[in-house]
Amino acid sequence: xxxxxxxxxxxxxxxxxxxxxxxxxxxxxxxxxxxxxxxxPGRQTEELRTALDERHHDAVxxxxxxxxxxxxxGAGLPPVLCYLPAPVMPTxxxxxGALVDRLIVPTVPSFEYPHSDLPAGVRFVGVVRPRPxxxxxxxxxxxxxxGTRPVxxxxxxxxxxxxxxxxxxxxxxxLADSDVTVVVSTGGRDVGALGIPVPANAIVxxxxxxxxxxxxxxxxxxxxxxxxxxxxxxxxxPVVVAGRTGYRAEIAARVARSGAGINLQTGTPSPAExxxxxxxxxxxxxxxxxxxxxxxxxxxxxxxxxxxxxVDEVIGDRARPYVT
Length: 324
Prior knowledge:
The longest helix is centred in the last third of the chain and has 17 residues, at about 305-320. This protein folds into 2 domains: about 5-125 and about 300-320, Glycogen Phosphorylase B (Rossmann fold); about 140-300, Glycogen Phosphorylase B (Rossmann fold, 3-Layer(aba) Sandwich), CATH 3.40.50. It has a 6-stranded parallel sheet, with helices on both faces. Strands 9-8-7-10-11-12 form a 6-stranded parallel sheet, with helices on both faces. The relative contact order is 0.13. It contains 10 helices and 12 strands. It is globular. The protein is an alpha/beta fold. Helix 4 (about 170-175) crosses helix 8. The model has no long low-confidence stretch (mean pLDDT about 90). The chain has helices at about 10-25, 45-55, 90-95, 170-175, 210-215, 225-235, 245-260, 270-285, 285-300, 305-320, and strands spanning about 5, 30-35, 60-65, 80-85, 100-105, 120-125, 150-155, 180-185, 200-205, 220, 240, 260-265. GO terms for molecular function: glycosyltransferase activity. It holds the Pfam family EryCIII-like_C. This is Glycosyl transferase. Keywords: Transferase. It comes from Mycolicibacterium hippocampi.
């Protein structure tokens, strides 16, 4: 039975996809150990070394945010697959791609810019779809999302959700008088933290399962969280992105390039900017057409199964004798 070590950051955006991968690997007969937690953030390398020393592992899957793996890369380590839920950038390819056996990119090639110099180990696998939520009970308003009125979903990621005035509040204000239903996910933040009254056409929840919600959505408004954008495009939902810093600006640029959404080119849009973007997406058929093209590209991939195949591949590669 192959033994796999998975290391991830504890935040949901990092941990949930790899929990899905772990459950799938267990179902395929692998023995999986997951290392995560925030108790000792400065001891990643030590904790990983301990986990690797305690028992034999045939392969390691590590989230790109677990930088503590870097000092351990090299001779004597099992094959390493790095999970990169972020835009492919020259820095990530240089710093990570050359050091690991496989660099797993959970999107489709058409979402990325063309790259002529990708390392041989880079693999696009499509989106890692979340597991069905355990014990999900649909809220009383769920039946309102029956297709009779357009649905706009606005979501701030778990990184930025502490300041709901960045995106959630401007979107609520922008669409308060529109003939749409606005569904807000605060990413775990207390709903009472909203600084404005909730409009009559809006529903606010602290957390909603995207795999169940997105098929009911017509437009997503997001701050550029990578996984959320991938899940939306995989569902054929056009996207409005308000992300101006770090990798979120890169995600926004890729959404605009795909034609499946609009880059607001700011992380703090005004209500007027949000309203104009949502209106454009609803009125110009090209956005939905391009989102459906992306949906078709994602439908041809199975991220979880492809990662399992890559694990088998690197284990097999390491087992083969070296031939000069």
